[in-house]
Amino acid sequence: MSSRFFEFFCPVKVIAGKAALEHLPWEMQGLSVKRPMIVTDKGIHQAGLLEPVLAACREGGVQIAAIFDDVPPDSSTSVVREIATLYRDKHCDAIIALGGGSAIDTGKAANILVSMGGDDLEQYSGAGILKHPLRPFFVIPTTAGTGSEVTSVAVISDEQRGVKLPFTSSFLLPDAAIIDPRMTLTLPPHITAATAMDALTHATEAFIGLAKNPLSDAYATAAIQKIGQWLLPVMNDPKNEEGRLELALASTMAGIAFSNSMVGLVHALGHATGAKCHLPHGVCMSLYLPYALEYNLEYIREPLGELLLHLEGPERYAQTPTEQRAESCIAAIRALRDQLHQRCGLPRTLEETGQVEFSQLEAIAQLALDDGAILFSPQEVSFEDAHALVCRAWS
């Protein structure tokens, strides 16, 4: 693998630790930012997570010129236009996205409009459309799963056309990502579990996929090790600051990994299921991960066996015969899902979600075939294969 051509790119400055928030004003001042705007959602506001950000800015001498706290879970072009209008009216000069994947994607899309001009977001949809850097942009993630703080993509719904608009450009990458454990201490158990499984899937698919490379492998394995070590302790003690920071770092590392190595079959199925049944993305990832690994098993046996070391530790790895390590890794993931189900009810099957009908499985399988992520599956996937897989994931 090391002799093959590959590219690796991650220019985002990551500021991580218990006082990371207090460094945000310094980063903004370095880019001559004087009137930043915060983009977030009402849940973040109600959880009290906005106040530490405002306090850090006040103490650092930075004036917040505007706050938009009405980002919905599935953000849309109309929301992005509303944010752009507020940004212009208040003469802002930067955006701080505070929240999970939806708030961060919305901040990225709003930055396109305020930087490029106009209100027609659709004209910038696709890959390689943006031709020059955007306004200063900072991200403070409040979940530990999406990795959006280090990815060059965003997805926004167009309500009128009923489609998802994808945006891909290196110019969407933030100038800095602030990883502070205070931002995830109040995450409910089921969201903690689902987002961690999202990060685990990002790292796993990056490590076993067709576009893997030595640099992304390093980030992927480090992320998996942190999740294996810290997820259950954090589920047992949600106020564990060290564990929260480690899971947040794992999410960022997994985001860097899959940004450079792409994802695969799990994401193709998850995107399709989310679109058809409106299941949270992290739940979809947790549901499909072991089934997709089993489907690809004979094509990924060596790298998957290596992941057992990072997920379960050196003792378990050494005790497991080489030819059994791949299956043992899948078994470890199933055991982790069982533990999460016991602690917070995280579904392990499509039937357990209560949101998926068996009659929808064919449509999910068909839609997954049209998802770009499926191109990076180690084994080619037919409709019959995809349908059989979702049927196995049913119960």
Summarize the structure.
The chain is an alpha/beta fold and 395 residues long. It has 16 helices and nine strands. The strands form two sheets. It has a six-stranded parallel sheet with strand order 1-9-6-4-2-3, sandwiched between helices.
- What is the level-2 CATH architecture name of the largest domain? Up-down Bundle
CATH topology (fold) name of the largest domain: Dehydroquinate synthase-like, alpha domain
What is the strand content?
Answer: 5-15%
Run of helices and strands:
EHEHHEHEHEEEEEHHHHHHHHHHH
Side-by-side strand order of the widest sheet: 1-9-6-4-2-3
Largest sheet: 6 strands, parallel
Cα distance, first to last residue? 38 Å
What is the CATH domain class of the largest domain? Answer: Mainly Alpha
Using only CA atoms, what is the Rg?
A: 20 Å
The 3D shape can be described as: globular
Number of helices, counting only DSSP H or I runs of 4 residues or more? 16
How many structural domains does the protein architecture include? Answer: 2
| β-strand number | 9
Helix content: 40-55%
Structural class: alpha/beta
Mean pLDDT: 95
CATH superfamily of the largest domain: Dehydroquinate synthase-like - alpha domain
Q: What does the secondary structure layout of this molecule look like, with pairings?
A:
Layout: E1 13-16, H1 24-30, E2 36-39, H2 42-46, H3 50-59, E3 66-68, H4 77-89, E4 94-99, H5 101-116, E5 126-127, E6 137-141, E7 153-158, E8 163-168, E9 176-179, H6 189-208, H7 214-236, H8 241-261, H9 265-277, H10 281-295, H11 297-312, H12 314-319, H13 325-344, H14 350-353, H15 361-369, H16 383-392
Parallel strand pairs: 1-9, 2-3, 2-4, 4-6, 5-8, 6-9
Antiparallel strand pairs: 7-8
Helix pairs in contact: 4-5, 6-7, 6-8, 6-10, 7-8, 7-11, 9-10, 9-15, 10-11, 10-13, 11-13, 15-16
Keywords: NAD, Oxidoreductase
InterPro entries: ADH_Fe/GldA, ADH_Fe_C, ADH_Fe_CS, Alcohol_dehydrogenase_Fe
Domain Fe-containing alcohol dehydrogenase-like C-terminal: 192-392
